[in-house]
Structure formats: structure tokens, C-alpha cells
Write a structure and sequence with these properties.
By secondary structure, the protein is mainly alpha-helical. It contains 26 helices and four strands. A hairpin with a 2-residue loop joins strand 1 and strand 2.
Length: 668
Amino acid sequence: MASSKQLRSPLSSQAALSGYQCDRSWQDLLLEQCMMGLLRLASLIPVLILLTILGVFVSETYAFFQTVNPIQLLSDRQWTPLFSNQQFGIWVIVSATLLVTAIAMTVAIPLGVLAAIYLSDYAQGVPRQLLKTALEALAGIPTIVYGYFALLFVTPRLQSFIPDMSGFNALSAGLMTGVLITPIISSLSEDALRGVPGSLRQAAYAMGMTKQEVIITVVLPVALPGIMASFTLAASRALGETMIAAIAAGQYPGFNLNPLKPVETITTFIVQVSLGNVDADEPIFHTIFFVGAVLFLITLSLNSFGYGLIRRHKCALGNISIPAAEVTVLEITVDGATVDDERIGAPGLKVGSVDPKEPVLFKRAIATRSSPLPFQSRYGWRMALNRGLALVGCAAALLGIVIFVLLLLVTFRTGFLVFDWGFLTHAAARTAGESGIFPALMGTLWVLGLTALIAFPIGISAALYLEEYVPESWFSRLLEINLANATAIPGIIYGLLGLALFVRDWRGVTGGASILSAGLTMAVVALPLMMATARNAIHAVPAHLKQAGYSVGMSRWQVVWHVILPAALPNLITGMLMALARVVGEAAPLIAIGAVAFITFAPAPSWAGLQSSFTTLPTQIFYWASRPQAEFQANASAAVIILGGLVLILTGISVWLRDRSANSTASD
């Protein structure tokens, strides 16, 4: 069956294409060219976004160095740009960021790799699907929920064993960040393990190896580049994590590598500054963009390196070849007749001597190895190791279910007591008992609607161009790399982009820190994910449907409009809902652009309403969880229940559509 790339043009030669176009009206040709131009423009939007981010950071970093001596970045021992005695020791917040990331990777690497081993080589059928779904669901839980869980559950439990631990500390933030990035390592590592050719496994089993020995000595070495790529991508995600560190790690401005004490990460500092009203001409405004540029360069380098490893690993697996065995033909004379005896040998084997005069009907040459491998004869011990690896891998794979159950217990235990109709219909108030989430809930729905309205058509258009129009070239590879990097950029970076572009430069249109600016910012956040899922949906359209369209004389755009889009629509909607499920839990970009902590009204359905102040459920949870009063923290728990319900609804609808589409495709 022809691939998608081979089906992009119904006619291969230019002469045939010219003759084909002569039979069409000029209106059809104009429509074809216009639509291709629009699709090409949509595919360039992610590139423009990345270039805009670079331009904003370069401009603001230049302004930062107009007031700060670069030597201070290395010589100062504290990071206190907000104090009267300003110091700019960048290593303070960089070291804190690396400390939280190191703790997270210490947790995520063994859990992720062990879970990947169990899911790829041990688990089968329904249990595997259940464990895999539960583990990957951890990546869909809003990070604000992890931060809340780290502050109100993990830290108190650790303090019972470590009395000297502070209420805000790097250890709790690192542990929950590790839980967050575990699905990244497990998913990518499982793909790498499953990509190992089955012939290698079969050869190892033929030598008498157990499954544990096959995994350790054969599978893991071959899959190592792909596994290492998962480590770099997970580290990039941990470096850019904002809300967990902002809630649980604290804001200590001095150099500190003690995980039991509070620290201030790069993202925490950006959130801290964003909580106040900062004028665009103040030095502190340029400072948050400078530290954002540092974070952007670090994560961009890790993302590029990780995706480069993945591409090289896939190419290496595609070109891997199993060495063929050598064949030695021996001519043996038995009773005056010559017998050809084919012996399959291998490097390191030599054929023993044969006495053709020995009175036998047939004599095979004896193959002996010059350097025999040691054979593990302790079968019971070897099988115990195999069962031990399976047990440990199963325990790691159960992490998703355990964390999910704990989150439910913690949130329902405190939040269910304040959850009532008044909580849903009231606005925020000075006292916890009178506070509600109605403006935050309406703001969340407004942001979701604007995000879908803006990102959905752009994402589908860009995906159509990349899948059906653009040929394989340096330009297509550039778009691929840009899309991969855009997907992994931390949300706080997009928040800084929204602050500079939508809030400051487009203030005349958006009204500044408004619901419209929030929708535009979150559309930028969701666009790479929508493009990726839309490309998968379009690529999954059966090739014979496209061939049928071209065979009856359809143009390329007609095939796209009448064949590809209807066939891919369920999966396209699924991708949109998955992207919205991620957006609904984002708090860092919205705090960066100015989401308010206290608002008594919901945005009106008008242009003035779009330009009004706003808050959302994640930002409201952050502000309530940051309050020391237990009543406000109970309100945060109740809001977490509502937010989790929204994520569950969006995820459930997307899974239902995906399964329905898969069943429909299977029946066809």
C-alpha cells in the first residue's frame, strides 16, 4: 500500500499535471492555490511563535544588561532583585532548579525504567492496559494538584520522620516532580524496548537465557539510546516545572543545597514577580525575561538533544541487521562416497578433525568453541532473579494507581466538607466560608472556548500541510524539529511571551491582562499538542480512501476536504479535547500574564467582557493553597475536585471518541 507521502499528487509528471489542470476551471485552480497558501501560512505559525520568543528574550535580556553588570551574575552570592540591596547571583536560582530536578530524576529514572520493562516484556492483556493507562494518567493531572499534594500531604508525612524539615523544602517538590515526569520516561522507554527487533530476543532465548537475562544483556543495551533520550526530555520537563516548586519549595533567595530547606527556583522567581503589578519599564520586568531566557536555552538544548537521540535511535533500529551464520561445507569420504555435510558455524568456532576412514555410514564434524561462554547452571537462582525483576517492575507500574488513590483521598477528605451549591455559585470573598468558585469556573470555560476557537483550526491546517502537501526536504525537517521543541517548552515561557506580546504590545486590542490575552496565550500553549495529535489523525486515514479520491479525478484539496477530514474528524476532536485537558490545568502561564487572586464577577459575553480581568480554577487553587489558613486550603481542595472533574470529563470524551473511531475503522 502506498504511503501518505506517495499520495500527495495524483499525477506524477509535470506534463500530466498540466493536462489535468487544463480540464479544470480557473475557479478550482484559484481555490486550490489559495487553500494551499493558507495551509502553508498556518504551518509557519509555530515557527513564528518560536522566533517571537527568541526576539522577546533577546530584546529584554539586552535591556537587563543595560542596568546589571554581567560580572554580578557570577560574583554575587544571593538572588535578591526585589530587595533594596539588589544582588544578582544567578547560580542561586540555577542551583535550586538543578537540585529539584536532580531529586526528581532520582525518583523518576528507576521507577520509569522498571515500569517500562514490566509493561513491555511481562504484562499482557487487560492488566497491561490498565497499568499503562493509570501510569500515563499521571501526566494529565494538573501540576497545581501535585503542588497542593506536596504541601499538604507529602511534607507533613516526611516531617514525622525528619523533624528538622521545613514546611517549604526542595525534597517534597522534587519527589512530586519526579512522579510527574515518570510517565515520560516509562512511555518513551517502553517504545524503545518494544522497538528492539524480535529476532534478537529469539536468539537469546534459543541460547537458554531467562527473560531477565534477555532484558539485561540484550534488550537494554540495544534500547539504551532511546532510554537516554527519555531521560533528557524528562529532565527538561522537570527544569521547567513551575507550580509544584512555587507551592512546595519556598522562596529562599540564598545559595542552599540542603533538600530539607526552602529554595527558590527559576520558575518560582518568575511566578513571585508576576504576582505583583510590575511596570514594563522597571528593571525587575527585564529580570524575569532574563531568567526566562536562561531556562528557555537550557530546556531547548535538552529537548533538541533528546529528540536527536530518538531520531538516531530509530534510524539505527531501522538499519539493524542480524549477522548471518557462516556455512562450512565438509567433504567427507565414507565407504568410497563423498558426503557434503553443511555445518552452521559462527565466529569463534572451529571444525574438529574427521577421520574419513572410520567405518561409519555418516560422520558429522564436531564443532567446538575456541573460547566457550560460561553457562549459568543455577536454574533456580536465575528464575528467582527473573521473578524479582517482574515483581519490582509491577510495583513501579502500580505507581499511577497508588498516587491517583492518594490524591482522591486527600482532596475528598478536606474538600468534600465545603463542597456545596453555594461554593459553586458564589464569588471569592475575604473570608473562606463565604468564598466560591463561580468567577473562576466561568473564566476557565471562557479560556477553554477561546483556546479551541483559535488553536483548533490553525492546528488542523498546519497538520494538513505537513502531512499532505510539504515534500520531504530541509524545510519539512525544520518544521518537524520546531514542532518537537515547541511541544516541550515550559508553560511559564509561553506565559512570558503572552505578557510581552498580548498584555503589553497588544494592550489596545486585548485590554491588557484580560480573558482575551489568556485565551491567546493558552492557544499558543495548546497549538503544538493539537498539531501533533492532528497529524497522527490525518496519517491514520487509510491510503485506499485517498487513492479512490484521486482515481475519480479529485484535486488535492478536494481529497482533503471530502475524504481526509471526514475520515479523521473523530480523532481530530479527540486530539482537541486532549489538548484542552492539558490547558484546563495550566496555572503558570496565566499567573505570568496577570490572573488576579480576587474577583467578584464572571466575564460578560461581550467585547468588554473579553477585555476584563479574570481568574481560573488553577490560579484560584494556587492563591488559596498559598494562604496559611486551613479554611482556605479546604476551599483549594474543593476546587481541586471541580478541576479534576473537568479534566476527567474531557479525557473521558476523548477516550470514548478514540475507541469508537477505532472500532469503526476495524469494522470497515
